[in-house]
Design brief:
Oligomer: single chain
Order of helices and strands: HHHHH
Distance between the termini: 78 Å
Low-confidence stretches: 1-11
Shape: elongated
Number of strands: 0
Structural class: mainly alpha
């Protein structure tokens, strides 16, 4: 059986084009509002819908890993960094107890703690903090065990 005249060019339009043409009644059948799909076209659309359901299911179950965070968060290179609402400082940037800029000092303290295992001392003065000394002791024990 030949395909109806009003489905000519469906392969080019795809599912969305066919659906829009059907919804708007703008078929090639001289202004009539009905729209018929050939059995082959219906089967193709069903396959596309099943594929879409599979892809959507995969996306819903998956996790997204983002790399190049400097580009993702760059305000002029990314659409992801458009915060709304009142401006608030980042965590650990201002603190009445810890001082300013702790956010950027933390990596150096961590590196100092790990390197102190091989050097035997820290660059930062931690003698005033019993908690810091206890943590350093535990870290050194773990590193010694892993040698």
């Amino acid at each position: 059986a030949a395909a109806p005249a009003n489905v000519a060019g469906e392969a080019r339009r795809g599912v969305l084009g066919s659906a829009l043409q059907w919804l708007t009644g703008n078929g090639a059948n001289n202004g009539a509002k009905s729209y018929e799909l050939s059995p082959t076209t219906i089967q193709d659309h069903r396959r596309q819908i099943e594929l879409f359901k599979t892809i959507l299911g995969t996306l819903r179950k998956g996790a997204l890993l983002l790399d190049e965070v400097d580009l993702i968060l760059h305000p002029l290179k990314s659409e992801l960094n458009w915060p709304l609402g009142h401006k608030e400082p980042l965590d650990f940037t201002r603190s009445s107890q810890l001082g300013n800029g702790l956010r950027w000092k933390i990596p150096f303290y961590l590196l100092d703690a790990v390197l102190s295992f091989s050097v035997g001392r820290t660059v930062a003065d931690v003698t005033y903090s019993q908690e810091a000394l206890a943590i350093l002791s535990q870290l050194h024990a773990a590193l010694e065990e892993g040698k």
